TrEMBL record:
Residues 1-33 form the signal peptide. CDD domains: PBP2_NikA_DppA_OppA_like_4. GO terms for biological process: peptide transport. This is Putative ABC transporter-binding protein. The lineage of its organism: Bacteria, Pseudomonadati, Pseudomonadota, Alphaproteobacteria, Hyphomicrobiales. Belongs to the bacterial solute-binding protein 5 family.
Length: 650
């Protein structure tokens, strides 16, 4: 197999409809079949540990039916380390992207099919209501303990569905009802819903869908009061406020930094933490999991590379200098801005790296979310005026921003897929109000009665200046602050006083996703309402819907919390629930289009420009890395490119 050619790019990019065939069973090798056909090999350092009696033989460590991964180019060789760079103390998802997420199922590298992973096979039955998974036999945690149905039961019953631990996440509910779970036999588990759930497999395939297999019962149960009568003593010793916090401190969660802070926590990951990611850390080290349950097509236990090493930098400039100096072996996250491209391209020979294409489809470089559920009643009232939002959009000179900050690359855009042939393309949602028209913007603001004060800034009904902040994370996207600075200047011309509020990532999430303290915020725009993804810029259903966190809270609490939304939003909530249950791809598409039409009419959020195809760097001697890969969070890129098969050629 060669590098990933354009003919293999995901259906999302080609404009075809992604779907899951619910009537079929995805099969792997029968249990024990590989062991009967294949002899296994292992890294030399592991062979030495077997010889010394420190580890069992490789056949026992990979299990009866290990997952077979076909390298993209060639069988690799063992050894060496892979270096990448982290930003500050809140870059835990970068570690997740490099290590990879190991769920019951996973997307294939082309993002067109969901295939077995920790499950050796799965079956969807009862009209898309029941999901049965046969666990891969013989899998072990990184400390050598068996992975069993008891681990899955602990994860689901004692954590996922335990309101005393945390509210049940919407991804594990349907129409407000949580998924039902049962252990069928010693190798089989089943998840069931009262209604069809067309998105559930895609939910489990995403990096945020690992919860059924995230925690080892034999280790993490010690932090759970149902399993340890002395948990209060552990709470006191750790200085934690409660057992829930104690649990997260020691066992983490899918997207929290403490997931990578405890070397004692057993995992099912490719590499395991040795030097933890904690406050003040300057380096993070992960070493190969000796019990990793994947092999290549010749029976070599993966991964090929011994360890991952990440230096922690406080700014992108340090990462760029490290790349140019040849100290980064793979880089994508943080490096892939337009401003960085020229200097990285010019120094390829010096840094001994090549560049690869990171494909996007339908993203917006930056979406602006006015908080329509702001706690400030005057701002909330004016933000909820559609003409006000239209005026702000018309007051943005997008081409100036593209030419100045994005180096002339990209086109003015609101949101959604770029290609008209894409089934999720919505012309109105994507292209309305993208022209620069300050004269019309001023007329709309005048029509709302927002008169200018002596300094030219418009006044709210109370007489206070029309002023607000937009929160952004400069360490995540450095170009956001630059773009917002131009927007600030452009809006000042139409009498709106906006200021940029750069904040640290953890604080950003707390302000904008949890406490709803923000006036406005920015984020990237999603490509489409693909299976398993939340259309957060169309319907406020998750933490990234920063334009309506109060409405999100109302929806998630079934009306008990938050703010009651208008009827147009309630209708989209209904469509969202209906779409999640649709097992017919065409039915699901029709519902998504209806929701997008409503969002286009309401015009609640607005964007700047089409996200450009980005890029990454990879050392010239690193093998099995494709020349291009889809850059998408639901794949946790580069996870889909199987870093466990990368190897050093020399």
């Amino acid at each position: 197999m060669g590098t990933l050619s354009r003919s293999y790019l995901p259906a999302l990019r080609r404009g075809r409809l992604l779907h899951i065939a619910l009537a079929t069973t995805a099969l792997s090798f029968p249990a024990g079949a590989l062991q009967a056909q294949m002899s296994y090999s292992q890294a030399p350092e592991l062979a030495e540990r077997v010889e010394a009696g420190e580890l069992p033989p490789v056949e026992e460590r990979v299990g009866e039916d290990p997952l077979v991964i076909e390298p993209i180019d060639s069988i690799g060789t063992y050894g060496g380390e892979l270096r990448f760079g982290l930003r500050g103390s809140s870059d835990q998802n970068h570690i997740l992207r490099m290590v990879g997420h190991q769920g019951l199922v996973r997307w294939d590298p082309t993002y067109t099919e969901i295939i077995p992973n920790l499950a050796s096979s799965y079956e969807v039955s009862n009209g898309g209501r029941d999901f049965t998974f046969d666990l891969r036999r013989g899998v072990r945690w990184s400390d050598g303990e068996p992975f069993t149905v008891e681990d899955v039961a602990f994860n689901v019953e004692d954590l996922m569905l335990n309101e005393a631990f945390a509210p049940v996440q919407t991804r594990y509910t349907l129409n407000g009802d949580p998924v039902a779970f049962e252990v069928v036999d010693e190798d089989t588990v089943r998840f069931s819903f009262d209604e069809p759930n067309g998105d559930f497999l895609a939910v489990l395939a995403a990096p945020t869908g690992q919860h059924p297999v995230l925690y080892s019962k034999h280790y993490c149960s010690q932090f759970h009061p149902d399993y340890n009568e002395n948990v209060d003593q552990l709470i006191e010793e750790a200085g934690a406020p409660d057992w829930q916090t104690l649990f997260l401190q020691n066992c983490g969660d899918t997207e929290v930094a403490t997931r990578w802070a405890n070397p004692d926590r057993p995992t099912l990951d490719t590499w395991v933490i040795k030097e933890p990611y904690t406050g003040g850390a300057t380096r993070v080290v992960l070493e190969r999991n000796p019990y990793f349950w994947q092999v290549d097509t010749e029976g070599n236990q993966l991964p090929y590379i011994d360890r991952l090493t990440a230096s922690v930098s406080q700014d992108v400039e340090s990462l760029i200098l490290a790349a140019i100096a040849g100290k980064i072996d793979f880089g994508l996250r943080h490096l892939d801005t337009p401003a960085n491209r020229p200097v990285l391209a010019q120094n390829r020979e010096q840094g001994d790296y090549r560049m690869f294409a990171a494909i996007v489809s339908g993203f917006n470089q930056m979406m602006i979310d006015l908080n329509l559920t702001s706690k400030d009643p005057e701002l909330r009232e004016v933000f909820n005026e559609k003409d006000f939002r239209i005026a702000l959009s018309l007051g943005i000179n997008r081409q100036q921003i593209i030419d100045t900050v994005l180096l002339g690359e990209g086109d003015p855009w609101q949101q959604g897929p770029f290609e008209p042939e894409n089934p999720y393309y919505n012309e109105k949602l994507a292209t309305q109000y993208i022209e620069y028209d300050p004269e019309r913007a001023n007329a709309l603001l005048d029509g709302l009665g927002l008169e200018r004060g002596p300094d030219g800034i418009r006044l709210l009904p109370s007489g206070k200046p029309l002023a607000f902040q937009i929160d952004a994370i400069p360490t995540y996207r450095a170009d956001w602050v630059d773009m917002l600075e131009l927007v600030r200047q452009q809006w000042a011309e139409i009498g709106v006083d906006m200021s940029v509020n750069p904040v640290e990532r953890t604080y950003f999430y707390e302000r904008t996703s949890n406490s709803n303290e923000h006036d406005a915020a920015v984020w990237v725009g999603g490509a489409a309402w693909i299976p398993g993804s939340d259309p957060h810029q169309i319907i406020p259903v998750n933490h990234d819907a920063r334009w309506a966190i109060g409405w999100r809270d109302w929806y998630l609490s079934d009306g008990a919390e938050g703010m009651e939304p208008p009827e147009s939003v309630k209708e989209r909530f209904r469509l969202y629930d209906e779409a999640r249950g649709a097992t017919d791809p065409e039915e699901r598409l029709a519902i998504a289009r209806e929701a997008a039409d409503i969002a286009a009419e309401e015009f609640e959020v607005f964007g700047i420009a089409k996200a450009m195809p980005t890029y990454g760097i990879v050392k010239n001697d690193l093998g099995n890395v494709p020349e291009e890969m889809l850059n998408w969070w639901d794949l946790a890129t580069p996870t889909q490119a199987n870093p466990q098969t990368w190897y050093w050629k020399d």
